[in-house]
Specification:
Elements lengths: L1 H20 L40 E4 L14 H13 L1 H24 L3 E13 L11 E15 L5 H68 L4 H35 L22 E4 L2 H4 L4 H22 L4 E12 L2 H4 L4 E11 L6 H68 L4 H35 L9
Parallel strand pairs: 1-4
Antiparallel strand pairs: 2-3, 3-5, 5-6
Helix pairs in contact: 2-4, 3-4, 4-5, 4-7, 4-10, 7-9, 9-10
């Protein structure tokens, strides 16, 4: 047994020695892309704050550079029903479950590859065979004899990874884990933003349907009055025909709005991880939302560290860089070691006792001499890296464009709401004036109905502008990446 211990120590020493000889990984080490060289998102400066309007959701919004982004930014909209719906969706969404499973798969693939390449592979072997030996085949005399031969041993295999190809392959898998993690973060951010947009759209459509129905009721009443005037001979039949057209046009618009609302409700249910009709979803109104007055504005140089899509593109670039190192490593020598240590005996009882010790140590060094495929594989990996770098630049540019679009939408939609709020105030003032004139007998009832219709039509446009302020705010939170992360 002392012999066996000596041989085991020798084999272990050889493995440790060659492991220490393994050099650094070939190929360029990955460097994070440089920060953006732009200071602003838009060609012309943004105002410090947006316009305001004396109406619901008409507050002025201020842009705070370097501001903290609330991880649960939707709470800034002030709707407990919305908060509960998003929290439930984050727990039950099949989209997030899929992304989580893909991330877990990437993590396990990395663990599997690391376990099979970073450490020696050790296998136990136990076998037996029945043999017949005939001395006459060797020119000897004697009778043939049969015997059993038993073997037990342990085998060890290890790739020393002299050029670091294995480490580069693991680096690529680790980058893929990062990519899937950022994909999951992006999916969460997108889900929350979509639910906010869909909830606000529900509130907008419900309010617009109500205003349109009020217009229709007023138009129908005006039409009935005109028909009565025709019956009494105080109006021409053409007046009835002229009024029937807007009545039916308004009537036709209501099913269209209702269909949009119903489809929006179906979308909201699916976003929440439910089947349409499986559960009664909350109903939202614009008045229950609060417009965030302070909006965080992360500077462009930090945006690349907060947006999941940019971070995912960086992870792809990192993976491509590591794959390039793998392709280079294939051009270098590959050293594989294997060792076996065991015992051989004629009986199972003697196998672990007085059996004969057997061992082997094999080292195989392979150096590609002529393989035109390997240089081509290296060039292909370099091209893949160039493609990943171009993709990263494109993702960054698209992110900048997205932020610029949202900022301009916040500015312009605030101005639009200001104008529509003034128009609504004017329409309300005109309606009140017409109501006073009608009460004094200075205006007809038909004139009053027309003023009511104009007021409701202005209200429809105002409702759309109010909803846009909320949607724009959610879009900015999404564009900022949802949560500000440190560079560490």
């Amino acid at each position: 047994m002392g012999n066996v211990k000596t041989i085991s120590s020798y084999i272990l020493f050889v493995f440790i020695l060659f492991s220490l000889l393994a050099g650094c990984a070939v190929g360029p080490d990955f460097k994070r892309p440089e920060t953006l060289g732009v200071a602003t998102y838009t060609a012309t400066p943004m105002p410090e704050q947006t316009a305001s309007a004396p109406t619901t959701l008409g507050e002025s919004q201020r842009f705070v550079e370097g501001g903290w982004v609330n991880p649960q930014w939707w709470h800034e909209l002030g709707s407990p029903k919305l908060n509960a719906l998003i929290n439930d969706a984050l727990e039950s969404s099949p989209t997030l479950a899929q992304s989580q499973a893909v991330l877990h798969q990437a993590q396990e693939l990395y663990a599997a590859q690391a376990g099979s390449t970073l450490y020696p592979q050790v296998d136990a072997d136990l076998g037996s065979q029945r043999q017949r030996s005939n001395p006459s085949t060797l020119g000897q005399t004697g009778d043939a004899r049969e015997f059993s031969l038993y073997n037990a041993g342990v085998g060890v295999r290890y790739n020393l990874d002299l050029a670091g190809g294995t480490r580069r392959a693991l680096e690529a898998l680790a980058a893929n884990v990062d990519y899937q993690r950022y994909q999951l973060e992006g999916a969460r951010l997108t889900l929350a933003a979509n639910i906010v947009t869909t909830a606000v759209t529900q509130a907008r459509l419900a309010a617009q349907i109500q205003a349109t129905e009020a217009i229709l009721a007023s138009q129908v009443e005006q039409l009935n009055l005109t028909q009565e005037r025709v019956r009494l001979g105080h109006a021409a039949p053409d007046e009835v025909l002229a009024l029937q057209t807007p009545v039916e046009q308004t009537r036709a618009g209501i099913p269209l709005l209702r269909n949009q609302l119903q489809q929006n409700d179906h979308l909201l249910a699916v976003l929440a991880g439910q089947a349409p009709g499986a559960k009664v979803l909350p109903l939202f109104s614009l008045r229950e939302f609060t417009l965030p007055t302070d909006l965080p504005l992360i500077v462009p140089s930090e945006l690349v560290r907060t947006r999941p899509d940019i971070q995912a593109a960086e992870a792809i670039l990192h993976s491509a860089n590591a794959e390039y190192g793998v392709a280079i490593a294939k051009l270098y020598p590959q050293l594989n070691l294997s060792a076996n240590l065991g015992s051989q005996a004629l009986t199972t009882g003697a196998l672990f006792g007085s059996g004969s010790a057997i061992w082997s140590l094999v080292g195989q060094l392979t150096q590609p001499l002529f393989n035109l495929g390997l240089p081509a594989e290296k060039r292909a990996a370099l091209a893949a890296f160039d493609a990943a770098a171009a993709n990263y630049r494109n993702v960054v540019l698209e992110a900048l464009r997205n932020v610029a679009d949202v900022l301009r939408a916040l500015e312009n939609d605030a101005q639009r709401l200001t104008a529509l709020s003034a128009a609504d105030a004017a329409a309300q003032g005109s309606l009140e004036s017409m109501q006073r004139q009608y009460a004094l007998g200075a205006a007809s009832y038909v004139q009053l109905l027309i003023a009511q219709q104009q007021s409701q039509q202005t209200r429809i446009n105002l409702i759309e502008a109010q909803a846009r302020r909320l949607v724009d705010s959610a879009a900015l939170y999404q564009a900022m990446g949802g949560e500000r992360k440190s560079d560490g």
